Amino acid sequence: MISIRNIDYDIAGKAILRDVSLDMPKHGVTALIGPNGAGKSTLLSLIARLLPLQHGRVTVDGHDIATCDTAALARILAILPQIQDAAPRLSVSDLVAFGRYPHSRGRLTDQDGAIIDAALAAFQLTDLRNRALDTLSGGQRQNALLAMIFAQGTDYLLLDEPLNNLDIAASRRLMAQLRGLADEQGRTVVIVLHDINYALAYADHLVVLAEGRVAAMGNPEEVVTDDLINRIYGTDAAVINHNNRRIVDVGP
Amino acid sequence: MRASLCLGGGLAALCLLSLFVGVIPVTPIDVLHDRAAWELLRDSRVPRTLAVVIAGGTLAVCGALLQSMVRNRFVEPMTTGTGQGAALGILLTTWALPEAGLLAKMALASAAALLASAGFLTIVQRLPPTQPLLIPLVGLIYGGVLGAAVTFIAYQGDMLQYIDVWMNGEFSGVLRGRYELLWIAALVAALTYAAADQFAILGLGRTASINLGLNYQQVMIIGLLAISIVTALVVVTVGAIPFLGLVVPNVVARYAGDNLRRTLPMIAGGGAALVLLSDILGRLLRHPFEIPVGTVMGILGAALFLWLLYRPKSHAL
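The joint structure predicted for all components is written out below.
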């Protein structure tokens, strides 16, 4: 379980997060949604120790992230990095092999090799394994990074808007894969999403942030209502039922 | 693998050539029976060849480390403040503590180089990540400002002749007993190889580094220390060799990628070979006079770099 208690976070005197306390259950997919600037990415960065905590406490499976050894934490929790323009010239398999670094410290065992091969296969990268990262498309590059954190073998995976540069087919494939990680391997996925429909279709647990505070959380089907969308986003998209599933109708 | 063998063979051949090229003619056969020839080799040619190999190899490695640390291919320590910082340090030491021993001077030059490189890193971290070209530009300006300070102080202190010695690398003065500090540079560069994986991960960025459990700050500091010590030692013993740290890691990355555990030995070998070739050409072109190694390397390096830029890069590694 990721447990967050009384987090306040300011950037240059401006309040980004205020009194955020919540628990993200172990196993399953937790989606983090909310309008732009609600503090979703900041919250994820704080959990992943990318930003220093200013106030409050975060524990992952009982490990306090402020005091836990960073190398030990890397075997429990992984966050998907983004590589923009300056991608190093690493081969895909070298990048995925770095996912084993927290375990092997650079001395790969046969078992590490098997895990790397499995990660490459899981993200359809086996044929691209010798390709240089800087010659891949944005989507392929993200896939390679996903395979890296997959190979890291952590119980917790954090992803900040991974659907941003993916088309609908790739988005659905990724979400199905994350679902599979949760269902078949018992891993815990925390994902920041923009599109509420993906959250409704794939998440077990939903956390809604607005203006730095928790506005709602719980079962997505129950949390997402016309009223919530109106209240949080200030727009009047209707939540409708379709094939026994709730979806947000974005039409006028 | 084949490329590494070629590089190794080429380097060995260049080393051998370097031993028998110079103002005084010596052949391998002379060395066997002529005592004077053997002494020449021992006191001048061998030290010179070793100094070239160490300076070339370590500077190229430092270029690769800095490029990984700031995640930008167009920087290298000699031109972005570290080299100028080292010169500033040794200049101030020579001026304020003329009696200081060589080791003390070295330590102070390293400290000044460290401060200068830390300053560069601090500036770089504030630059917008969307403008990668700003980093080398700011680096050149920063190095230029520090270089100007060096010249000003030297002018005021009537020490301009030293500047030339420190800022233009040159191996004709290398003799036994006057280059041995470079072994420390060789040791430092060799030690960074133990952290090759960490430096390669740094090249993936801060998020990826922290995600993989790297102590980001600590690896950055190790990198800064290594770069500063090596740069200061090279500046003090043979003088600055600009752009070497830029050209060689880029050529190697183009062919063999950025997995530093695999490429650092090639980068070191390539740096040594390029400087050695430049030094030998410098000895031969206007025989019996010498052309400074920096001049020859500038021309060779620029040609190599242009050729590289216009070649399509391979997709596979």
